[in-house]
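Escalated from tier 1: flavin mononucleotide holo job.
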Amino acid sequence: MNLNQLHELPQELLYIWHAHRTGILLAAGILFAIVRLGLHWRSNRIDKYVLKHEIIDKTSDDTPRRSVVAQPEITPVNTQETTQTTNATRTKEPRRVQGNKSRKQTPNQDGDVLEHLQIYIFYFTLGGSTKAYAERLAANLNGASATNQKILPVEVHDLAEVDYDDYFITPPKSAQRSTASVYLILLPSYNIDTELSNFLSHMEDTHNDFRIDTGSLSTLAGYSVFGFGDRQEWPTEAQGYCTQAVEVDKWMAKLTRRKRAFPLGTGDIRKDVDQRLQEWQSGVEGILADLADGKGLGEGVSGSGDAVESGDEDDTEEPLASDSKPRRKVRSDAGDLEDIKVPIPVDFTSLGRSAATTNAPKAMVPKSSPTYASLTKQGYTIVGSHSGVKICRWTKSALRGRGSCYKYSFYGINSHLCMEATPSLSCSNKCVFCWRHGTNPVGTTWRWEVDEPDLVFEGMKAGHYSKIKMMRGVPGVRSERFAEAMRIRHCALSLVGEPIFYPHINALLAMLHAEHISSFLVCNAQHPDQLAALGPVTQLYVSIDASNKESLRKIDRPLHRDFWERFIRCMDILREKRFTHRTVFRLTLVKGFNIDDEASGYADLVERALPGFIEVKGVTYCGTSTAAGAGLSMQNVPFYEEVSAFVLALEKELLRRGLDYGIGAEHAHSCCILLADRKRFFRGRWHTLIDYEKFFQCVESKKPFSPEDYIGEATPEWAAWGKGGFDPRDVRVDRKGKPKVVEI
Ligand SMILES: Cc1cc2nc3c(=O)[nH]c(=O)nc-3n(C[C@H](O)[C@H](O)[C@H](O)COP(=O)(O)O)c2cc1C
Ligand code: SF4
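Tier 2 regenerated the structure:
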């Protein structure tokens, strides 16, 4: 290049710039963007690499590299790790926990092979008696598990001597991943300041310490508490009986995240402590065996862990359908059984001839059907293809010492010993107040497969017991009632559907009686032939939902066209049955439907059937769309005074006709009053209770017998008219679980 050309270079460059500046700028911009993106991607990879290695370091090293502020829902990854963390931090700095999200583990849920079960017994004592009980319990458990290699010798610790940090912040160091630990805590109660008060404060502090996982004992396999108290000085829990055991049980539920392995047991040191402790021990032994077998706590409903227990059940007698919202109608063969078009429907009244039908019958509630899904969602256990079982709210209530249903006051039935079941989920009515609407199948004929009665019976019992077991972790469940509940004494065949619809109903009843389970069978007065053929039943109910044809049509919405004729025939059959069966009318009063001016109509029916008893009950509003569609609202639920006024009017009307009925008992809590034939009033008292053992003797004698043969003792004073009828052994509570004052 010569000098001239060199001179012209700037001009040349300027020219090139002007001519190509857009392209140049664009290319530079693209290049810059590529470089930035490359750098960004590279730094991201480094970050990830560092993080990954930090995590690996953290889980493999005794000393945590990072501390993460504990969130309410965090929990240690495993026992060992947590113990190490706590140890490592306790000496150097405030306690720290790592913040991995809870996986709600139990040792054997981790997939670890459970090798051992370590039982720790903790006790507190001042006078020495609880120590003696703890040592005896340890000896018993060691003896019982001597042959089980998985259960390690029991460790016994005095709470006054242990360092709480070693056992009650996290489980002990000795607890390995493959060793499940169970705490059994035996405690007296003292209303004075003792070490026990410190223990309780420690539990509260641990739970509330923001640096510690709120469920820091959740890696335990389970726990159970037994309290010793003195009922003579502290008669009820509210007055102080075993209060500290109750408190510890609640805090343990929180700290373990609901690992209550067996309900809190309590024993009166002056009276029943040995028996209660023995019952509790037997229950605990069962759970320990399950845990050692790697079965975990089972499908138990874990306790809420709430220090203030919530009344987690509504106060209505019948549970509401869980989804009371209007439901889209699902059309399917199985879902809407009423609409199934089976070519030749078989009238179940002539089932013996069903072999003539060529089409094989179907399952009433197939597993794949929406009906099945809906019923199981509501808590029913479907047994076989057409039966069901469910524990009623009163069974739960009695397990928690919150009262039994009116049948305890009237007939001596303990609700926690009662199984509610039906062998036929199908019904021939669509009553407006039935809370199962939209779920249970309906039909006038039995068009389905028939399960054998032994299958139905065994399935019902298994379903019931499994539901009872699910209650063992629920706060407030009394251990002695829980133990008693594992032996069914009564069966209410009234759950849903129509029990006598089942072709083998008599065989099923015989199976119940053979196991000394009493039977209360409720039918809807629509199946006269089955009613006539019915064998022995402890108590035979007929639902009387209206006193005249029009009302019955409006309320029961029966599927049979000849529903009134069927109803009246049933009245006549009942009149005959009164010599062989304890017959009961069950009236459900619905304000605006069947109360007003109907006392005389009901009296007509009583005069016709002459039942031994008349139960009158105010309807429970279930809030379903069906109820609403039928014009039912809370306005239709009568007050207790209105039910009482109706009963008095009916009693008067019956007397006017020379029918001697009187008020035998009441249960104001469930708005229910019992009228009884005055023959049951003798020796100055009503006798509405049942002697169940005598009933079984009568059945076993195979000779004819009458309801008078098994009249029980006098109706308790507290259930008499004007006394309310609430079981005095129990505490009535409101929706929040707070004791409730009953006004009669
Ligand atoms: C000073 C004192 C206070 C007590 N307070 C209660 C109490 O509040 N509630 C209760 O149920 N029992 C209470 N008790 C009864 C004890 O809990 C009961 O006797 C227990 O078995 C004592 O156990 P220990 O011998 O292991 O100390 C109390 C006993 C004493 C001596
Ligand atoms: S009789 Fe049995 S099933 Fe019926 S409400 Fe009472 S406890 Fe429940």
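The chain is about 35% helix and 10% strand.
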